[in-house]
Amino acid sequence: MVRAGGAYILLGALGKTLFGTPSDLPAALLRWMYWDHHALLVLVIAVEALIGMTAIIAPRLAWPIVMAALAAFMAMLGVQMSEGATSCGCFGSALTVPPWVMMVVDGVLLALLALSRPWSALAGQPWRWWAPGAGAAAAVVAGLWVQQAARVDGPSDGRSPGSTVGDRQPPLDSGSSGTGGSASQAPPSDGSTPPVAPPPDGTPSSSWRLPARFPRYVVLQPGAWIDQPVGETVLATWVDPSLIPGDCDIVFFMETCHHCAAHLRQLAQSPPSIPLVLIQVPTPAGSTYPVVVDVYPEASRLRLPRGTEWHIQLPWHVEIRGGRVRQARYLGQ
């Protein structure tokens, strides 16, 4: 039974590796762990792989961690049920399983494991720690290496690994591009797009292209871009850097983000003296959260493309000076 439990946990790690994104992790876990979401996903995969492989290699020693893991899974599933989650995300995005179903499965496995009394096999057996150690090392290396297939940083030349040149990205919508402190109202909610105004000192580049193939998800970490030229950050893969002035402030926002709405409202009331560029993060597909951003400051506007999942804490206010990222502030707390 210990090996069966380990194989079950290992199957979950495999599903997350092949099909998972950070959005498959429990929302409560993302709230409690103030980590980069990609790193947290890799950690979860590595831990599950460690437990699963150790249970298969050394079941006589691994039964406590298998039982503890199943109990922890049930606790997290209980939280998901209380929050009304429709899928547990246990096997990545490829398989939708309601949390209550997984609660039953995990509970049955835990009960069967307890009834098998795995601790009785320890009588007279030496504690050989090399097997769990080997399983742990193999699991961590495998989890970290395989999950890099979904790595999101991309090279500094603006293309994702293995990509070919694709279509240019149009700047999708814009506020007015003149000077002054008046705020523009939010665009129509029917999906229509107002005309685009280019940034004050930027013109679209004829050579820039979006990657032809998108990764499953992209993690944006503006705090890691300090002192880098804008054109060498991961942002340049997804937004034409020629549309970003050499001296400006950039605000990343989402229309359903309350902190974003408050920051944009503040900028509308007290506009900065330097050009402002708003970069809109697309609302996740199927989101039922209402649009709360109702006022925009005077700014040029761009939008990240759809076709992948965007993972970024919002809002971020990034200062660009001399074409380099000088400061990045997360304003969501």
Shape, please? elongated
For the largest sheet, list the strands in their spatial order: 6-4-3-8-9
Q: Which runs of at least 5 residues are low in confidence (pLDDT < 50)?
A: 146-202
Largest sheet: 5 strands, mixed
The topology string of helices and strands comes to HHHHHHEEHEHEEEEEE
Q: What structural class results from the helix and strand content?
A: alpha/beta
What share of the residues lie within helices? Answer: 25-40%
The beta-strand count equals 9
Q: Into which percentage range does the β-strand content fall?
A: 5-15%
Radius of gyration: 24 Å
Number of DSSP helical runs:
8
Report the average pLDDT across residues.
76
Terminal-residue CA separation:
45 Å
Count structural domains.
Answer: 2
Description:
This protein has 333 residues and is α/β, with parallel strands linked by helices. The chain folds into two domains: 2-150, no CATH class; 184-330, 3-Layer(aba) Sandwich (Glutaredoxin), CATH 3.40.30. The chain contains eight helices and nine strands. It has helices at residues 2-19, 27-32, 37-57, 59-82, 99-115, 130-147, 235-238, 258-269; strands at 184-185, 217-219, 248-253, 276-280, 295-296, 300-303, 309-311, 316-321, 324-330. The strands form three sheets. A five-stranded mixed beta sheet has the order 6-4-3-8-9, with no helix packed on it. Strands 1-5 form a two-stranded antiparallel sheet. Strand 8 (316-321) and strand 9 form a beta hairpin. Helix 3 packs antiparallel against helix 4 and helix 4 (59-82) packs antiparallel against helix 5.
